[in-house]
Amino acid sequence: MNIVITGYALSGYGGMETVCKRLVELIAVNNPGTKVDFVFFNEKGEVDEQWYAGLNARMVASTVRNTKLRRLHFALALSGFLRRRQKRLKDLLDSLVALQGEWRLHVVGDGADLFQCQQYAEKLGFAGRVLWHGWQARPWLYAKTNIGDLKALVLTSAFEGLPMTLLEAMAHGVYCVSSDCPTGPADVIDGINGRLYPVKQQAELTKILQGL
């Protein structure tokens, strides 16, 4: 399988370069037969091409200003996994109230409002079904070793930069359920590798999770 990633040229000085390289590494480990090519549209010509070493990358001189092509230029937002305003973990917990059958929620990450989230899960009556694993330096290795097979990864964000969590999950072959927030999820989830639901619509999220 071949994957072609296109976008606005990266300067070679920001965090997105690390994201691209890490994505290639994850795909190489989990899908050895997959080839990844990058096509970058360079408007300014001020690009340090040294960072492209080791990648199958091609630079194209262009003034293309398509919004979707430029989304690789967004900065990666680093924040606590449990940050309620952005990550909206409360939406996920609320969606689980009506979920039928046997299920477990594994939360890998940390944040200032961890205790409030744990209290809220207890208030909803299913604290025993939610396992809090805390911050992990290598979350996917940790999940493979300590959690096992995952049915899906759920992203309930109100907004994102580039949803690296989704890309990493896909590289590991994990089905993704995500809010259709700006920006990113709609560009990488196609109905086969995952499903989208409207932001803040917990009932729609419940329907998707129930169907897994």
UniProtKB/TrEMBL annotation:
Keywords: Glycosyltransferase, Transferase
Highest taxon above the source species: Eukaryota
SUPFAM superfamilies named in the record: UDP-Glycosyltransferase/glycogen phosphorylase
Glycosyl transferase family domain span: 85-207
Signal peptide feature range: none
A Pfam family matched in the record: Glycos_transf_1
InterPro entries linked: Glyco_trans_1 (IPR001296)
Cross-referenced PANTHER family: GLYCOSYLTRANSFERASE
Identification of the protein by name: Glycosyl transferase family 1 domain-containing protein
Organism: Anopheles maculatus
